[in-house]
Amino acid sequence: xxxxxxxxxxxxxxxxxxxxxxxxxxxxxxxxxxxxxxxxxxxxxxxxxxxxxxxxxxxxxxxxxxxxxxxxxxxxxxxxxxxxxxxxxxxxxxxxxxxxxxxxxxxxxxxxxxxxxxxxxxxxxxxxxxxxxxxxxxxxxxxxxxxxxxxxxxxxxxxxxxxxxxxxxxxxxxxxxxxxxxxxxxxxxxxxxxxxxxxxxxxxxxxxxxxxxxxxxxxxxxxxxxxxxxxxxxxxxxxxxxxxxxxxxxxxxxxxxxxxxxxxxxxxxxxxxxxxxxxxxxxxxxxxxxxxxxxxxxxxxxxxxxxxxxxxxxxxxxxxxxxxxxxxxxxxxxxxxxxxxxxxxxxxxxxxxxxxxxxxxxxxxxxxxxxxxxxxxxxxxxxxxxxxxxxxxxxxxxxxxxxxxxxxxxxxxxxxxxxxxxxxxxxxxxxxxxxxxxxxxxxxxxxxxxxxxxxxxxxxxxxxxxxxxxxxxxxxxxxxxxxxx
Length: 485
Prior knowledge:
Largest sheet: 7 strands, mixed
Number of strands: 25
CATH architecture of the largest domain: 3-Layer(aba) Sandwich
Helix content: 25-40%
Shape: globular
Distance between the termini: 62 Å
Number of helices: 14
Number of domains: 2
CATH superfamily of the largest domain: Aldehyde Dehydrogenase, Chain A, domain 1
CATH topology of the largest domain: Aldehyde Dehydrogenase, Chain A, domain 1
Structural class: alpha/beta
CATH class of the largest domain: Alpha Beta
Radius of gyration: 23 Å
């Protein structure tokens, strides 16, 4: 196999796979970012075995040793920020400024969990029985399979891998096939951080080929997954239905997030929230505000202002300095977006702005899509029920705050939700009654700090929250010990 092919990382060694796949730049499909090895099932089993062997060694290291290793990873991410941002923009299509922000977030996550590695606490309490004491502590869960999507190819792996390592677990990391470049670069950084061989493993390739091993191998004690709801259900079934012990599992599966704009809203602020939440990152984020629920009194001004703001969004090569909206990630995603736009028109919605696919940018062939805004939509339309995962948003007109709240909660998802209002009364009510794991008041629905819990309700999430100190709930197991002196 050519040295130009980026290999898998298993048991502390870089190993070629049986074949490789090209990593294509969605801003210019003539540009191949690189060739990346695909692991075989046998190599996936090797990775699990390596993780199982290494995990006790890693768990036995002191909290300070684990902390220092994670801090080194975070520092190296910061040192290579410009290089990694360019790679991220090139392989995934995220505008360069947003890509740079994602690298920074990944670095901050590793540094946060470097601190958390030193703060794993416990309890010593008295028993109801004389002279007996009770000790409660957290221990590593064991070998963790990490499966991540393509839309945040550094940040999402970081917020799964960092806590897994901080709490003494070993990791087998399977990134999305569309974005192996960032995964490989992260693996390269982790490989240099001084972990025992096998503590961290990277296996790249197709999920349908590697999933059987990574989900069903009884040596895997926990599975953390971010992706579609349909795939998340398969992960859950595999975790509980496999032979041998069931695996602990954590699922993040998308959203259909509402942004409510009430009559008393600051319209300029509402437009800024909608523009960012619905269209930045090309709308390819599970926290995107794809349903804009607007009350009668402000509806027309809001729509007119949003369209004017959308006219200023520059669509182009993700690495071009003026680009705000990069391409969608690949041909399949562009086709899906266009299908939903056509479906919205057929169901009677008005395409008020955009929605046109562009085959190239300044002569570069790519997967460009002008952000789309639908008006005259109803809550029952498909475009308001299903996650599109592109720069497509719908305006739903409602009469008042009561109807706005009902419509906002009328979804099988419950990840993020927002409200724009100047009323403390409305802010308090929507904060309390919105059925979502995260609620934003006068802020975009997308964007969560690295030290706070991330997750949703209903069809969006299952299991303990990700990020922040709440990550300990998934990546550790609680042990109770009775001591009779």
